Amino acid sequence: MRKIAWWAAVVFAGLGLVTPMVRAADNLLVNPSFEIDKDANGVPDGWKVEWQWASAPNRVVLDSSVHQEGSRSVRVDLLDPSVAPPWGGRMYQDVPVTPGATYQFSGWLKLQGWQAATQKEGLGFRAWEQYDDGSWNDVPFYLSDELFTGDFDWRQFTTTIEIPSNVKTLRIALWSNPGTGTAWWDNLELVRIK
Ligand SMILES: [Ca+2]
Ligand SMILES: [Ca+2]
Predict the structure, then answer these.
(1) Is residue 11 part of a domain?
(2) Nearest ligand, CA 47
(3) Cα(96) to centroid of ligand 2, in Å?
(4) Residue 32: which H helix or E strand, with range?
(5) Which of 74, 81, 170, 171 has minimal Cβ neighbours within 10 Å of its Cβ?
């Protein structure tokens, strides 16, 4: 009996210590939970922001009061769609990938009163692919459902990405076209599964 209990303790301790470290190392995204802002400029380090509508009262901020993981999320408030320029935006980072490999993406999204300005394009997670010749695909594909309206608590979106033989870089983005309401993104993960 005593011997069994000792082995069980070792096994469970090992699982508890090792599993989170392996998962963190496998995530190919930098600052995937938006926790790091060492230069204190309000933009999560490692991410590039192109949110063209982000002039007052509309804004994109790090939110330390609402988060799915850690202590921060990225929040977009679109309060007045008449403020120019009216188009949407993205926050993204580029990840080197292996041609022919398969990756799994997941990320969390929360919406409050979101209403798209048109029913042609919505909001979610999106990706671009860069080809061998340096060019990018014209139309990015969605990594989540494409959302036009919404009011829901944190929801995880997961999808599998097969990398074509002529693609070497994946651009992962939080994405939104014009609308009104508030959206939060948090806790992204990109791992190679094949
Ligand atoms: Ca976070
Ligand atoms: Ca920063």
Answers:
(1) no
(2) 2
(3) 21
(4) none
(5) 81
